[in-house]
Design a protein that fits this description.
Strand order of the largest sheet: 1-7-6-2-5-3-4
Structural class: alpha/beta
Largest sheet: 7 strands, mixed
Distance between the termini: 29 Å
C-alpha cells in the first residue's frame, strides 16, 4: 500500500543509503534563502495560490511529479511546501563556472540527456532512500502547445524501485506567463495544486519490465491530469520510441531551482 502522508518512511529494500546526512543537509540554509527569493519573485510577477499541501508527507521519501509548461516550473514546484526537494538538471549546465558551484547548493544534480544515465538513477535512488524528496517532470520536456504529453517510463522506473510516495502536481499559469520560445515575461495568475498520493502498491513486487514501468508512468500522468482538471494524454506504450528511460523522464528545463 502506498504510504499515507503521515506515515511515509524511507524504503528499506534498497539497502544502506550512500548519501550522508551532512551531504543532504549542508546546503539547506542556502536552499531556503533561494526559495524565499523565488516566492517573493512569483508574488511580484503574479499572485499565486497553493492547494492540497496537506497531501504532502511531512517526512519520508516523496516524488513530486508536475506537468511541465515553462522555464518557470522548476523553481515554482518547491514554493508550495516547507520541505526541500532535489532536481535533475541537464549535465551541460554543470560545465559553467558559476552554475557548477550554484546548482549543487540548491540540490540539483546532473543527468545526461539522450542516453540512459545510470549515475543519475543511482543518485536519485540514494536521495529517496535517505528519506528526501525528488521532483521529476514525467513528460521530460516543456510542452510547446500547452497540452499534456505522454510520460517517459523513467519516472515509473524510479517510482517502482524506490517505492516512494508519488504526489502529482498541477502547475497553473506558467505557460501563459512564459511559454516556450517567449522573449518576455507576462504577469498573470499562478497556481500550485498537490494531489493525493498515486496508488501504486499493486505494482510493487511484480517483475520489473519496461511494460510495468510504462504502466506506472501512465498512472502517474493520469493523476496529474486529474489534478489539472484536463483529459489525460494518449497513454505511452512500451513499444513507443525513446532515447532511454531515465534521460527522458528526468530531462530538465534549462535550470533547476527549489
Amino acid at each position: 500500500m502506498t504510504p499515507s502522508p503521515e506515515t511515509a518512511t524511507p524504503p528499506t529494500h534498497l539497502g544502506k543509503p550512500r548519501l550522508t546526512v551532512d551531504e543532504v543537509r549542508k546546503s539547506r540554509h542556502f536552499y531556503a534563502l533561494v526559495r524565499y527569493f523565488f516566492r517573493v519573485f512569483y508574488s511580484c510577477v503574479g499572485r499565486f495560490t497553493v492547494e492540497g499541501a496537506e497531501n504532502i508527507p511531512k517526512s519520508g521519501p516523496v516524488i513530486f511529479a508536475p506537468n511541465h509548461a515553462s522555464f518557470l516550473d522548476p523553481p515554482f514546484v518547491g514554493c508550495g511546501f516547507s520541505r526541500s526537494t532535489w532536481f535533475f538538471t541537464k549535465d551541460e549546465l554543470f560545465h559553467h563556472g558559476f552554475l557548477r558551484w550554484f546548482l549543487p547548493k540548491i540540490q540539483a544534480f546532473p543527468v545526461r540527456r539522450g542516453a540512459a544515465d545510470r549515475a543519475a538513477l543511482k543518485k536519485a535512488l540514494e536521495i529517496l532512500t535517505q528519506g528526501e524528496t525528488l521532483s521529476i517532470f514525467p513528460e521530460g520536456e516543456r510542452t510547446r502547445d500547452g497540452n499534456l504529453h505522454p510520460p517517459a517510463p523513467g519516472v515509473g522506473m524510479i517510482a517502482l524501485k524506490s517505492r516512494a510516495t508519488v504526489i502529482p502536481v498541477g502547475i497553473f499559469g506558467t505557460y501563459e506567463m512564459l511559454p516556450t520560445g517567449a522573449k518576455r515575461l507576462k504577469r498573470g495568475q499562478l497556481g500550485l495544486k498537490y494531489g493525493p498520493p498515486v496508488p501504486l502498491s499493486d505494482l510493487y513486487g511484480r517483475r520489473e519490465t519496461r511494460e510495468l514501468q510504462t504502466e506506472c508512468a501512465n498512472r502517474i500522468m493520469v493523476a496529474i491530469a486529474d489534478v489539472l482538471g484536463v483529459p489525460p494524454p494518449l497513454q505511452e506504450t512500451s513499444a513507443s520510441p525513446s532515447e532511454g528511460a531515465l534521460s527522458q523522464s528526468a530531462r530538465p528545463a534549462a535550470s533547476a531551482t527549489p
